[in-house]
Design brief:
CATH superfamily of the largest domain in chain A: Alpha-helical ferredoxin
Low-confidence stretches of chain B: none
CATH class of the largest domain in chain A: Mainly Alpha
Number of helices of chain A: 11
Oligomer: heterodimer
Strand order of the largest sheet of chain B: 2-1-3-4
Mean pLDDT of chain B: 96
Structural class of chain B: alpha/beta
Low-confidence stretches of chain A: none
Structural class of chain A: mainly alpha
Largest sheet of chain A: none
Strand content of chain A: under 5%
Number of strands of chain B: 8
Largest interface: A-B, 61 and 60 residues
CATH architecture of the largest domain in chain A: Orthogonal Bundle
Strand content of chain B: 5-15%
Number of strands of chain A: 0
Helix content of chain B: 40-55%
CATH class of the largest domain in chain B: Alpha Beta
Radius of gyration of chain B: 19 Å
Number of domains of chain B: 2
Radius of gyration of chain A: 19 Å
C-alpha cells in the first residue's frame, strides 16, 4: 500500500454506507487478515489487493477504491468470499463499486470491461446471447478486429458458434428493462 | 423422473457438446428433461457487474417459467454461470423487499422455493451412484482423470449451499463409479479466467496454462469439467497457450457427461466428442472407447 500525505486524500465518509445499502455487505467487519489477497488468482495484475480495497472503503478513500484497476481485474471467482472469516462477499462489494463507477461515469482504469458490459446488456435484449455478434463488435470497437480470429474460425468449422442470432421474447425483455429503470428512479 | 431443463445460451452454441451429452445420458438414466419454454439469457457475469436489479430479474424469470413448465418445482441448469445466477436470484427472493422489486420487473410471480440443480447434483442427488453404476457397460478402466470444478459450481458456499468447497468430490465420485482413476491435484477449484475471455485474454491464457500444467504434472490423461466456459478455455485455448508460452499441451478435456456416456456404451458420435477443439480421437482409440 502506498503511503500518502493524509491531507491530500479526499475522503467520502458515506462510501462504506453506500456499499452496504447497495449490496448488503458490511465492509467495516474486515480486520485486514489478508486471506482474500493471498487467494486471489489475479492479485498480480491489480494495483491494490482486495484487502487494501476493503480498507479504502472503510476509510472513505473513494478515488483509491474506484479509479484503480483492482475492481476491473476481479474475476468474480469467489475464492476470497468463500474464505473470508468475517463472511464479507467481496465480489458483491466489487460489483457495487463497478456499478457506482458506471452510474456516476467516474474516470477509471476499466480497459474494455465497461464497453463489453454495455454491449452485452444491449444484445441481451434479443433474448438469447449472440456470441458471434458480441465478440465481433467488441473486437471492432476496441480496435483489435482480428483478435482470436483463428480460434473463431476453428469454432465455426466445428459448428460451435451460431452465425445468426436466436431471438426470443425481445419485447418482454425490453419491458423488463423499462420497469427496472422506472423502479431505480 | 421429470425435471425442468434450462440449457442457457452457451449450451446452444459453443457448449453444444454439454447439451447433447446431458440429454443423451439423461435419456439412458430415464430422467425426462422438460426444456423451459421461451427461456432467455440469465445475464451472466456482465449483468451483475453493471445492473444489479436486472442481474437478479433475468434469472428470476427462469425460476418463474420453471413452475409454468408442466407445474414442475425443480430445474436443472448444467451451465455453471446460469446455475450460479439462479442461486443468487433465489437467495434475494427470500427477502420480501427484494422479491417485490424483482417480481415487479419480471411481471410474474417468482417463487423462492424452486429446487435448482446442476448436472453433478442431479446425478449424485437424484439419480444416485448405484443407478449410474448399473448402466456402466464399458468401464473407463483405470483412465487417469483430473476432475476440474472451477468456481461457480461450489462458490460462494453461502449462496450455493456447498460444504466441501475447497475440495469438492462429487464429480470424483461419479468418475470413480465409471471405473476411472481419479487424481488429487492442486487446481481443482482454481479460476480459469472465464469472464475475461473477451476483455483480458492474457489473464485467461495465464490462468488456464497453470491448470493444464498441474493436470499434466500429476499424470492426467484427461480432464473432466462441468462448465461451458471452463471447457472453452481448457479445450479451446491450448493452441494459443502453446504459441504464447512455448508449451506442448494436448490434453483431452471432456464434459463429465460425455465420459458417463462413453462408459454407458453410447457411441461417441451421439456425445458430440467431435466438436472439441483439442482432438480426442487418438485418446479414444488408445483407450478403446471408440
Amino acid at each position: 500500500m502506498k503511503i500518502i500525505g493524509e491531507s491530500s486524500i479526499p475522503l467520502d465518509p458515506n462510501l462504506a454506507e453506500e456499499i452496504r445499502r447497495r449490496c448488503g455487505q458490511n465492509v467495516s467487519l474486515c480486520y485486514q487478515c489478508r486471506k482474500c489477497a493471498a487467494g486471489c488468482p489475479n492479485r498480480s495484475f491489480m494495483d491494490s489487493t482486495p484487502t487494501e480495497l476493503m480498507r479504502h472503503i472503510q476509510l472513505g478513500m473513494a478515488d483509491e477504491a474506484m479509479k484503480g484497476n483492482a475492481i476491473w481485474y476481479c474475476l468474480s471467482c469467489h475464492t476470497c468470499s468463500a474464505r473470508c472469516p468475517q463472511d464479507i462477499d467481496i465480489p458483491q462489494v466489487v460489483d457495487a463499486l463497478r456499478i457506482i463507477v458506471q452510474e456516476k461515469k467516474v474516470k477509471t482504469d476499466a480497459g474494455s470491461v465497461t464497453l463489453v458490459n454495455r454491449l452485452w446488456m444491449a444484445m441481451l435484449r434479443l433474448g438469447r446471447m449472440y456470441e458471434m455478434g458480441l465478440a465481433s463488435l467488441t473486437n471492432l470497437l476496441t480496435g483489435r478486429p482480428f483478435k482470436d480470429a483463428g480460434l473463431a474460425a476453428r469454432m465455426i468449422r466445428k459448428g460451435k458458434i451460431k452465425l445468426l442470432p436466436t431471438i426470443r421474447k425481445p419485447l418482454e425483455i425490453n419491458r423488463m428493462f423499462k420497469r427496472a429503470r422506472k423502479l431505480k428512479k | 423422473m421429470k425435471i425442468a431443463y434450462f440449457p442457457g445460451c452457451s449450451l446452444h452454441s459453443m457448449a453444444a457438446e454439454f447439451d447433447v451429452s446431458t440429454r443423451r445420458v439423461c435419456q439412458s438414466l430415464d430422467v425426462q428433461l422438460c426444456e423451459v419454454k421461451d427461456w432467455t439469457c440469465c445475464g451472466s457475469s456482465p449483468a451483475h457487474g453493471c445492473d444489479e436489479l436486472m442481474s437478479l430479474a433475468l434469472p428470476a424469470r427462469i425460476l418463474a417459467l420453471t413452475t409454468e413448465t408442466e407445474n414442475l418445482r425443480e430445474v436443472c441448469a448444467p451451465c455453471a454461470s446460469c446455475y450460479s445466477r439462479l442461486k443468487f436470484a433465489q437467495e434475494r427472493l427470500t427477502d420480501p423487499r427484494w422479491r417485490a422489486d424483482i417480481e415487479t420487473v419480471v411481471g410474474r410471480p417468482c417463487p423462492p422455493d424452486v429446487g435448482i440443480f446442476n448436472m453433478i447434483e442431479l446425478v449424485i442427488g437424484k439419480v444416485g451412484l448405484d443407478n449410474v453404476a448399473s448402466h456402466v457397460v464399458r468401464p473407463l478402466a483405470g483412465i487417469k482423470v483430473a476432475c476440474y470444478y472451477g468456481c461457480l459450481l461450489t462458490r460462494p458456499p453461502k449462496v450455493i449451499g456447498s460444504t466441501n468447497f475447497e475440495n469438492p468430490t462429487d464429480m470424483d465420485a461419479i468418475m470413480e463409479t465409471l471405473g476411472a482413476q481419479v487424481l488429487d491435484w492442486n487446481h481443482k477449484t482454481s479460476c480459469c479466467g472465464a469472464s475475461f475471455a473477451l476483455t483480458k485474454t492474457e489473464v485467461v491464457l495465464n490462468l488456464t496454462r497453470k491448470i493444464l500444467a498441474d493436470a499434466r504434472n500429476v499424470g492426467a490423461e484427461a480432464i473432466a469439467v462441468a462448465c461451458p466456459l471452463c471447457h472453452a478455455n481448457l479445450d479451446g485455448r491450448q493452441e494459443q497457450i502453446n504459441a504464447a508460452f512455448g508449451t506442448d499441451f494436448h490434453v483431452p478435456v471432456f464434459y463429465f457427461t460425455q465420459l458417463m456416456g462413453l462408459a454407458f456404451g453410447i457411441p461417441p458420435k451421439e456425445l458430440a466428442v467431435g466438436k472439441h477443439l483439442t482432438d480426442v480421437g487418438d485418446f479414444l482409440k488408445e483407450r478403446a472407447l471408440l
